[in-house]
Design goal:
Order of helices and strands: HHHHHHHEHEEEHHHHHHH
Oligomer: single chain
Number of strands: 4
Helix content: 55-70%
Amino acid sequence: MRPPPRHRLLESALLAVLAAEVGVRLLSPREPPIEPTPIDLHSYFSEDEIARGARFARPQVALALTAAAVDIGVLALVVRRPPPALLRRFERPVLGAAATGASLAVSLSLPALPLRAIARKRGMRVGLVTQSWRGWATDLVKGWAIEAVLAAGAGAAAVGITRGYPRVWWLPASVGSVVFGGTLAALAPVVLDPVFNDFTPLPEGETRSDVLELAGAAGVKVGEVYSVDASRRTTAANAYVAGLGPTKRVVLFDTLLDRYSRDEIRVVVAHELAHVRGRDVIRGLLYAALVAPAAALAVQRLSWELSPERGTPAALPALALAAVMIGAPTGLIGNRLSRAIERRSDAYSLTLTGASEAFISFERAIALQNVADLEPPRWLTSLLATHPPTAERIGAAVSYSEGSSGS
């Protein structure tokens, strides 16, 4: 089958980008965010604290981007010069694709491993990483095993679909990717996450009572609330919402529960409840569903351009490279949606708790605890950040406080 004309490839890539833009506009929260008051960062952080965050975080970003470039470069090399074993003809192509997908997933993660080890070593030096190298290696092996299983399934599905629908496989592939994403979102909290951490239901007490009180005020069913033993790996603090339906849950890092005041934890819980109230996990799946058809069409056309292989395990590297090349810009655009959701959740947290001082003290403390870049370059925030920068979040709390005191 001949590849499509290159102008059609460009059209489909632009269509995927357009779909991502439309998705961001349609799915961004309708509630207006709090307009942040411009702040003097030095009123909240010392010069040494600002410099420390930049010294740590910016090289970490550079290492992460370099590692990603190595991953993509190695994959491109495999597409350009496939090893003989990859060109082997299997009697059962779908089973061969499963084996190929699993082996590619693990082998392609190895070349950039030294860069990720350097990043980890830097985290140890600033006290952010607490896990031993043996523990890290154990986690790597667990991660590779999970990646191998998922990649085997994805490889088998990809070859099965491309063989069954050789000209229009992008359509069932787009449906399958969304179904897979939804299934993973529902099952990951109960199947995958416990492989790496222990999750304990929050016991009766002050924090649990606060969660239930805030959930009642927000009018949401929170599901279960868990504490996770994040301290086995890191001193960083965080909280998140995960799962769908019966697996829906709010997860609080033990480093958050151990180090922050009651009012600060209430601010964090209220922020997470805003995600539950806004059905933000489903919102993310809807974004994927809007982008998937155009992106899958672009992946189909680009993979045909990259490799002559069709419907065989040897086609998988080109499919993977095409997915990365199309997924990168749509993912970067999707970060805008994430930042909009986080701004909405910050605003709701302030409104629900009225605790602007606790919000500010929490943002200051967590930025220092996580060794965050307090003055990130604008391009970095615009492209890669999933959350607003610390100064903006503090500025929103200042603005809320000024509005509350003036009313």
